[in-house]
Amino acid sequence: MSTPLPAMRALVASLLVACCATVSAEEGDPPEVTYPALPARGATADVFVPAGWAIEMRAAGDLDKDGRDDLVVVLRMHDAANVLHNDGMGPDEFDTNPRMLAVLLADADGYRLAAEDHALVPRPDNPVMDDYLDGDGAVSVQRGAFSVRLHAWASAGTWYTSGTTFTFRRQDGCFRLIGYDRTELHRASGEMTTISANYPARRATVELGNMESDTPSKTRTLRLQAKPMPCLADIGNGFDFDPGIPTE
């Protein structure tokens, strides 16, 4: 029997909390971080990089329909104080340096800051977890919108893994969430739950299946409530976000 999506998410969270509690006690909590303010404008993307930070990822494409390539950049702090010694499971040196997401719109003089976010991509907090931004394409720009893909895979504490993609489009003064796609997998049983939400169309699908089969065992199409699409700043931690998709 497949686990309903909310129950599965709660189970994953409880397993990871238990795992984190054991590991954190051995390594100590990460130091507090003060996120620097980014400039409003800059001639190049490098102007938006604070001291002690670097551009880790970037994606280019036209986000405001003016024919210029805009940028979505992931900034990563580089402070040795945030690299913790770990005597438990996971790497010996655990990098807890945080990230910032910045959206830069191009104009004739360079770029202007259109959005910044510190929460969607969580700060690393558990050495048994893979990097939350995994591989090429974790940030992308396509068809006037940008996407951020989060990855959750633990080497201990849970059999569950997931991939979640948030897609944003500029509308009504901010970058609003227009798409949410998530696949959760139990690595032992192979059970999978896939959900996909198109918020402008107020439509979502939920598929239950198994990784060994190309055909879902159950598929449902759902009508979503009519309500404003959240802005990037309203999402918070991507793993805690409730997509508002009924599962029963």
Tally of alpha and pi helices: 2
Main beta sheet: strand number and arrangement?
7 strands, antiparallel
Number of beta strands: 14
Rg, nearest Å = 19 Å
Helix content: 10-25%
Q: Any idea what the shape is?
A: flat
Euclidean distance between termini CA atoms: 14 Å
Strand fraction: 35-45%
What topology does this entry show?
Layout: H1 5-27, E1 41-42, E2 53-61, E3 70-77, E4 83-85, E5 93-95, E6 99-107, E7 110-117, E8 139-142, E9 145-153, E10 160-171, E11 174-186, E12 191-198, E13 203-210, E14 218-223, H2 232-235
Antiparallel strand pairs: 1-7, 2-3, 3-6, 4-5, 6-7, 8-9, 9-10, 10-11, 11-12, 12-13, 13-14
Please tell me about this protein's structure.
The chain has 248 residues and is mainly β. Helices cover 11% and strands 41% of the residues. The chain contains two helices and 14 strands, in the order αββββββββββββββα. The strands form three sheets. The chain has a seven-stranded antiparallel sheet with strand order 8-9-10-11-12-13-14, covered by helices on one side. The chain has a five-stranded antiparallel sheet with strand order 1-7-6-3-2, with no helix packed on it. Strand 6 and strand 7 form a beta hairpin. The longest helix is centred in the first third of the chain and has 23 residues, at 5-27. The relative contact order is 0.15.
